[in-house]
Design goal:
- This protein is mainly alpha-helical.
- It is built from nine helices and three strands, in the order E-E-H-H-H-H-H-H-E-H-H-H.
- Strands 2-1-3 form a three-stranded antiparallel sheet.
- Helix 4 runs antiparallel to helix 5.
- The N and C termini lie far apart (about 40 Å).
């Protein structure tokens, strides 16, 4: 059990939702599978699985089953928690200037991202265990929000696509550099910095 914004968040409600939804002919959250719920001990962290659990479809599905009386009203706190992190993931994974989703498009002056991130700082600071301990990930999220604000303010960008800062980008880069001559790598990085460094963050 976690406390988020002063309210309890329980994994049992995610599990309950899956059990109910998996029996439906038309799924509310079709990507949710047993592997998301029944996680074996010592399994490596998988961001994709976490993102599929903390998704809009799961949050909306829980709220729909609450309205139908198939899940307790308290489960709405868990749905709100999931919805919040779905939006937070979108803020940090924008890839284009335009998107039909509220937070999946690039950040720009006056975009709704900034107000959401201000609210996120307060909500993340409230995320604690029942004993009052702050989760290790909270500090990382708060630092990331602060860094995004500083980068946008200091780099003078019209648009900022946050997905360019993800670890996956770096992981994809290193295999391309393996086996290359040191001088060639240096030229590649210099050219990237001089000609496309800023552009790659904004498009």
């Amino acid at each position: 059990i976690l406390m988020f914004d002063g309210k309890p968040v329980k994994w049992e409600y995610v599990s309950m939702f899956y059990e109910l939804d998996s029996k439906r002919q038309i799924r509310l959250a079709p990507k949710l599978r047993s592997k998301h719920i029944n996680i074996p001990p010592f399994k490596n962290m998988n961001v994709r699985l976490a993102a599929q659990v903390l998704s809009h479809s799961v949050a909306s599905g829980i709220k729909m089953l609450i309205k139908k009386g198939k899940m307790p009203q308290e489960a709405e706190h868990t749905a709100d928690f999931i919805e919040f992190f779905d939006k937070l993931f979108n803020v940090f994974n924008s890839t284009s200037k335009m998107s039909s989703s509220q937070f999946k498009h690039a950040l720009y002056t006056g975009s709704s991202h900034w107000q959401f991130m201000d609210t996120a700082v307060t909500k993340l600071s409230s995320l604690k265990t029942l004993t009052g301990s702050i989760l290790p990930c909270v500090k990382g999220w708060l630092q990331n929000i602060a860094v995004i604000k500083v980068l946008f303010d200091n780099l003078g960008m019209a648009y900022l696509c946050t997905a360019r800062f993800n670890q996956d980008c770096l992981e994809n880069l290193f295999p391309r550099l393996r086996g290359r001559d040191v001088n060639e790598i240096t030229r590649m990085l210099n050219n990237s910095e001089q000609h496309s460094g800023t552009f790659s963050l904004t498009t």
